[in-house]
Structures are given as structure tokens and as C-alpha cells.
Specification:
- The protein is mostly helical and about 210 residues long.
- It contains ten helices and no strands.
- The radius of gyration is 17 Å and the shape is globular.
- The relative contact order is 0.14.
């Protein structure tokens, strides 16, 4: 259990790193600033709730997944709107995203977290793969790792890919085989730590 708590605190504290890097850049998009602040707020809110309250954190996670995934969709849109057709397609995608979340608000928190969590992680992973391929075709191998959208896409792909199976089997872990959380929690925290570090790297690679 000591390792689990250590990784948990490490993952939460690592959400400060993107904010520090953000302050070092003169000009960044408003969407990126909101995304970093939202991640930081959710991490420390969950820490406070965990330490001082018995409130079910899954309700916060459900809202967090929606806001984070929506912000990422709009952030990705800055890169994907290459043609009028893509612009329309992406607008429809965002609309479907919002409508779907509105629907899952009517079901139980656990079902909501599982259904919307799995959907958003699959969606963001697919978009991240598309972006990585697009950036690979644009940049030379030696400069690809310095590209902002490549680093953000890699962060999203690793984070969502590692956590997808945990979200899908969320109900099983929580109510039937709770002991499995001992094995899955380090994966969740490790993926969160990597996510924050890669976002920080992406911000660092932005030009002033």
C-alpha cells in the first residue's frame, strides 16, 4: 500500500509541472491554459476529498473526463481544421460528444464513468494516432519530438491507452474484485505521471 500512496502523491504533484512550464512561456493558447488549470484543480480537489471527506470521487472524475476530453478536442481542432470538410466533421464530432455526455448524466455515476470514460478514451486515442501520423508526414524524424502537437498526442495516447481497460472494467474492480485495485492503481498513477510530464514537454517545445 505504501507504493500505491507514493505513486498517488507523485501523480498529483506532477500536475504542478505543466503549470510551471506554462508560466515560462510568454504566449500560449487560452485552451491550453484552461486544460492545465483544470487538470491541476481536479488532482488537488481529489486529494483533499480523499484525505478529509468520504465523498465518492467517481462523480468528480466523470465531470473531469468530460471537461478534459472536450478541451482536448478543441485543442486538437486547432491542428485538424485543414480543410472545410474536416472543419465541419470536427464540429459535428464535438456536438455528438456533448450530446452523449448529456445523456449519460441520466444514468448512475458508475455506469456514467464506465460508458463515457471508455468512449472518450477510445475517441481521443484514435484522434491522437491520426495526429501523430499527420505530424510524422510533415516533420523530419529529428524534429518530430520537438513538435507541440506530437508531444500532446503522445501524452493523450499513452494516458488513455493505459487506462482504457481500467475504465471498461471499473464496476468489476470497485464492487466484485476490489483487491484488483491494488494492481491497477499503480498503472493509473504511472500513466497520469507520464501524461503530465509529456504535456510539460509539449509546452516547453512551444515557441515564445
Amino acid at each position: 500500500m505504501g507504493l500505491i500512496y507514493f505513486l498517488g502523491y507523485l501523480a498529483i504533484l506532477s500536475s504542478l509541472v505543466p503549470l510551471i512550464f506554462l508560466f515560462k512561456k510568454k504566449k500560449t493558447s487560452l485552451l491550453l491554459k484552461i486544460l492545465v488549470l483544470e487538470i491541476l484543480l481536479v488532482n488537488f480537489s481529489n486529494l483533499i476529498i480523499f484525505l478529509f471527506s468520504k465523498f465518492d470521487q467517481i462523480n468528480i472524475f466523470s465531470i473531469h473526463v468530460f471537461f478534459e476530453s472536450t478541451l482536448l478536442l478543441f485543442l486538437f481542432k486547432e491542428q485538424l481544421v485543414l480543410t472545410e470538410l474536416l472543419r465541419k466533421f470536427f464540429s459535428i464530432l464535438v456536438l455528438i460528444h456533448i450530446i452523449f455526455f448529456t445523456y449519460v448524466l441520466t444514468i448512475s455515476p458508475d455506469e456514467r464513468f464506465t460508458l463515457f470514460g471508455a468512449y472518450s478514451k477510445i475517441l481521443l486515442s484514435l484522434i491522437a494516432v491520426i495526429l501523430i501520423v499527420l505530424r510524422y508526414r510533415i516533420y523530419e524524424d529529428d524534429s518530430l519530438s520537438n513538435d507541440f502537437f506530437f508531444n500532446i498526442s503522445a501524452a493523450v495516447l499513452i494516458y488513455n491507452g493505459m487506462q482504457l481497460y481500467v475504465v471498461i472494467f471499473n464496476s468489476l474492480f470497485r464492487f466484485q474484485l476490489e483487491s484488483l485495485l491494488i494492481f491497477t492503481w499503480p498503472i493509473i498513477q504511472l500513466s497520469t505521471f507520464i501524461y503530465h510530464i509529456l504535456i510539460s514537454r509539449a509546452i516547453w517545445k512551444l515557441k515564445n
